[in-house]
C-alpha cells in the first residue's frame, strides 16, 4: 500500500457552548464550522470509516458528515477540563498556581486567554501526579486509554487506507504526542492550541513510524470568527 494512503485523520469537534450550563453542545458557530468541515472531509476521504467518541459534541460534529459513523469508541472521550480546573484551584496554594480573577471565573468566554495561559500549568501538575482529580483519575490511566483507542483506530487500515476520528483536543494532542514520539511539553502546547473543527493528519510509513502531514489545520474554515479555541 502506498505510504500516503495510510492516514489517521484526527478531527477536533466543532465549537461547544463555553460559558453555558452545558458545554457539551455545539454553539451556533460550531454548527457552521461543522458544515465547512463536512464539505472538506467529503473531498479529503469520502469513503473512509468514521469513528467518534461518545460525547454529544462529537456526535453533533460527525452527524454533519456524509459518511456514516462506523463505530463509537469511549476511549476517544475527553477528560473533564472543568473538574481538572476546579481541583487545581481548590489546591492552588500547595500547587503554587495563580488563580484567575473572580470575573474570569464568572465569564470564561470573555477571559478564555486567561484560562489558556494557565492551563498548561494545571495539566502539568496532573501529568506529574501532583494534582489529584476524582472525576478524571490519573493522567497515566487517561494516556493509556487514549493509546489503546489509537491502536483500535489503526486496525481500521485493514479495510481502508484512511480512518477519520472525531474527538477532542486532549485526546488528539495525547495520541499525536504518543505516535510522533514527542514529550509532554509538546503535548501541552498542542493541547491548548488546537482549533475547533481542526484536522491533524498523521501518516504511517513503511518503516512503521508515524509522521505528521498536517497539525491543527483549519484551511477549510474561513478566517475570522470561525477560528475558535473553545
Question: Could you walk me through the main structural features you see in this protein, from its secondary elements to its overall organization?
Answer:
With 230 residues, the chain is of the alpha/beta class. It is built from nine helices and six strands; from the N terminus they run E-H-E-H-E-H-H-H-H-H-E-H-H-E-E. The chain has two domains: 159 residues, Rossmann fold (3-Layer(aba) Sandwich); 47 residues, no CATH class. The longest helix has 17 residues. The chain is globular.
Condensed summary:
This protein is about 40% helix and about 15% strand.
Strand content: 5-15%
Q: Let me know the average pLDDT.
A: 93
Q: What is the element string, with H for helices and E for strands?
A: EHEHEHHHHHEHHEE
Question: What is the 3D form?
Answer: globular
Give me the Rg, rounded: 17 Å
Helix content: 40-55%
Output the keywords:
2 domains; alpha/beta; 42% helix; 6 strands; Rossmann fold
Topology:
Layout: E1 7-12, H1 28-44, E2 50-52, H2 56-62, E3 69-72, H3 81-90, H4 92-95, H5 102-106, H6 112-127, H7 139-154, E4 162-167, H8 169-179, H9 184-193, E5 199-204, E6 210-217
Parallel strand pairs: 1-4, 2-3, 2-4
Antiparallel strand pairs: 1-5, 5-6
Helix pairs in contact: 6-9, 7-8, 8-9
